[in-house]
Amino acid sequence: MSKGGASIPDEEWERFLREAEAGTQGAPKEPSARARMVTQRLQEETGRPEGWRTHQLAPRRRGKGWYAVGLLVTVGLLIVALAPGRVAGWFGGGGTSAPLAAESERPDQPPATQEALQLPTLKQPFRGSPAARWGNGASGISLPAARATGWMSKEQVAQALDRTRDFLAASSLDRGVLRGERPKKAIALINPHQRDVQDYLATAFSAPSRENDPLLLFSRLATKKVRLVGDVVKTRGRITYREGKRGALEVATDVTYVYPVVRAAAGSDEVARTIVRREVVMSWDNPAKVIVDPGTFSLVSYKVNTTNGGCGTSTGYLTPEFSAERAAEDRGDGPEFDPYDRSTSVDALIQEDGETKCRTATRL
């Protein structure tokens, strides 16, 4: 089903795309994520994320552009380690507060804080966190109303928006993926003809590194060390769209995910939280102009900011720390950062740092 417009069966969607592709002569050999760099026009769109300049890779051959890849990691530092109760108590809400309305545009300030001391528990893992009022799973990711855009009708736009949210759920909320399984459903939605992205995916899972890190797109926990608490991952974010290059439907996503975890050892009861925010831009291409499999999109850019998920290493897994570990490590020289603050784009944070850094979390 779709939001903001009527849905169409998958068979009709695929038939439409196949017919469009079959009637095309001289389509490009392959789309490239590097060829889909978001332009200055993106900054001028109302309600859209700001500029997407981060680390840019040189083109591999003539005719190819760049794709943007960003990575910013944040850890809970000494300020959290020495007084976790005080820091957690800066903001209230134990899961009984009224849920927030859907986020339709970028907020202009971070969530408010409170003085009450409320630590998370196994029964209330989001207590003391703004996420207590966020949505559960995919319900926290708001969809805009569909309208005819580029080569797509209103119904096709609604279908593409639904499938965009399906990708976010399959990449960052799927229980198997969170346990470290390969994100097959999510990968199946990425255009297989986008060769550089397929190369990244192959390398990221076999030999993860800072440049080829699966955490740029997918959430995977180091389950030998930690396990998820309960059945809920809290989310807050939004999806926007506009007409892109060659009449494509260009969709931008900006979502924060909050994962409550405990140590993997039986009987563990100290709850920590890992907070991941991703900005992913994708292009639902016109098969009359770009070679694309039906029902798949091409990646334009992807950036991530991770809080308490590991800093300075590229294992391919989120590795949260708990109070004792944070207290034993001295990383207090990093800039302070509120991981619940969605008023600043990930791109702006990366530009502020100039490079990937470990930042000081003011609250977890």
Verbal overview:
It is a single chain. The protein is an alpha/beta fold and 364 residues long. 22% of the residues lie in helices and 20% in strands. It is globular, with a radius of gyration of 20 Å. The protein starts with 9 loop residues before the first helix and ends with a strand.
What labels describe this entry?
22% helix, globular, alpha/beta, disordered N terminus, 11 strands, 364 residues, eleven-stranded mixed sheet, 10 helices
What's the short version?
With 364 residues, the chain is α/β, with parallel strands linked by helices. 22% of the residues lie in helices and 20% in strands. It has 10 helices and 11 strands.
Given the C-alpha coordinates, what overall shape results? globular
Count of DSSP E strands?
A: 11
Structural category is alpha/beta
Query: What is the end-to-end distance?
Result: 35 Å
SS element count, helices: 10
Mean pLDDT: 79
Strand content: 15-25%
Chart the SSEs and their pairings:
Layout: H1 10-22, H2 40-43, E1 55-56, E2 68-75, H3 78-81, H4 84-88, E3 135-136, E4 141-142, H5 154-172, H6 175-178, H7 184-187, H8 195-206, E5 226-228, E6 234-243, E7 249-263, E8 272-284, E9 298-307, H9 323-328, E10 336-337, H10 346-353, E11 358-361
Parallel strand pairs: 2-9, 2-11, 4-6, 10-11
Antiparallel strand pairs: 1-2, 3-6, 5-7, 6-7, 7-8, 8-9
